[in-house]
Design brief:
By secondary structure, this protein is mainly α. It has a domain at about 5-140 and about 185-205. Helices cover about 60% and strands about 5% of the residues. Helix 5 runs antiparallel to helix 6. It is globular, with a radius of gyration of 20 Å.
Length: about 270
């Protein structure tokens, strides 16, 4: 679609990078407001967002490399430094680990801050998916629906030949040659992300048990990703029906549901720096 938003001489502003920056600054602004409202030291907001970004990018890339291990072994440098390949579920794990370390060092409650961050993950995801759409990455299966789109400059471009190379398990028989139109799953997920953000944001003051909002997030995000995977290009590993992302989504739903039903007994002693 529009991999480059603006070009002034040698300077190029890439759409995906712009959306990532927008997502992280949006999350920082909202976290800052929430921490100020709850009378926490607002300086820690920048630390949380920074390390969430670092852990998210590293986790997302590592997940992508492992999921495409054959291509990684064939062309490790190209895969590591490619413009694509930031898988959200890997990013979620990486961000969670890094932020958990920061909270532990500051002697802050993991459960309280997990609830603060849960809606932000959702809106960050929604904004990031717009970037995926603009750059032509993470699109869906071939489709002839009226709103189906093609990505001539996508990663990779949506052509019959590219599908036969990168997604040989996908049926492209409806398209004989040339460009393929596909489900704009990035926009489906972006729309869902904004809706779920509003839901979580409205619930944040109605949760009495710390951690509950985060576990609700895990359930919502897991269910959303599980079903969207049926119209994405990811290879199905389990019973030739479920992708790796769907297996992780089931685990997310299980974890969220388990700890909502059987909450962890929390110890006191949180400091307010």
């Amino acid at each position: 679609m529009f991999p480059v938003i603006l070009e002034i001489g040698p300077i190029k502003i890439y759409s995906f990078g712009l959306m990532l920056v927008t997502a992280f600054y949006t999350c920082y602004f909202l976290l800052y407001l929430e921490m100020k409202r709850l009378k926490y030291d607002t300086e820690i907001a920048s630390d949380i967002i920074f390390w969430a970004a670092v852990g998210g990018v590293l986790g997302a890339k590592i997940y992508y490399l492992l999921e495409n291990l054959d291509r990684t072994l064939t062309d490790p440098v190209g895969m590591i430094f490619s413009g694509s390949g930031l898988v959200f579920l890997g990013g979620l794990v990486g961000s969670t680990l890094c932020v958990s370390i920061i909270l532990n060092k500051r002697n802050l409650s993991w459960f309280v801050f997990a609830d603060l961050i849960a809606p932000l993950i959702m809106i960050g995801y929604a904004i990031g998916r717009i970037g995926c759409f603009l750059v032509g990455d993470d699109y869906g299966l071939p489709s002839k629906l009226p709103w189906a789109v093609s990505f001539p400059d996508g990663l990779p471009p949506t052509t019959v030949s590219n599908f036969s190379i990168y997604y040989p398990w996908v049926d492209t028989s409806e398209f004989t040659s040339g460009m393929i139109t596909v489900h704009p799953t990035q926009l489906y997920e972006s729309f869902a992300g904004f809706l779920f953000f509003m839901l979580l944001w409205n619930l944040r003051n109605k949760i009495n048990r710390p951690g509950s909002l985060f576990f609700i997030y895990l359930i919502i995000a897991g269910v959303e990703r599980f079903f969207i995977e049926f119209i994405r290009t990811n290879e199905k590993y389990l019973f030739d029906m479920f992708s790796g992302a769907q297996i992780i989504s089931i685990i997310m739903v299980f974890i969220g549901g388990y700890f909502l039903l059987w909450p962890i007994t929390q110890t006191s002693g949180e400091s307010n720096p």
